[in-house]
Predict the 3D structure of the following.
Amino acid sequence: MNSELWQQVLALQTVYTAIVDSGDWQKWPDLFTDDCLYKVQPRENFDRGLPLSTINLESKGMLYDRIYGISETLFHDPYYQRHVVGLPHITAIQDGRIFAQTNYAVFRTKPDGHSQLFNVGYYLDEIVGTQEGLRFARRHCVFDSEMVPNSLIYPI
């Protein structure tokens, strides 16, 4: 594996984190291919091969629908997110696709409260090259706990 490719994967992770932490939701879908998959699933279900997931979005259109819901229709106590993301581990490169695993932790802070650990797990990514650069064809967020505190509003 060449270091330039790894740096491009790292850059994609960095941009992703900056977008979800800043709440610039309109840019989030641009990091994915049109026929993408974005899935958030408890580790217990993933390890057992069970399909049930907390979020399962099967196209860029569904990502935009999620953003519309976050921005226009969902009512919830506002909070900030802060991701701490490990370095990506490229596990395979096949047929022009990059497969990577990256650990993450997400902290949540309500404006009138303290920061709390919200979600911990790892990303399983399938990344492809496009004219715009590397994009996620699949982002599978596997979180370690069986429960998500309160509700999962923003992308992990």
Q: What stands out?
A: The chain has three helices and seven strands. The longest strand covers residues 115-130.
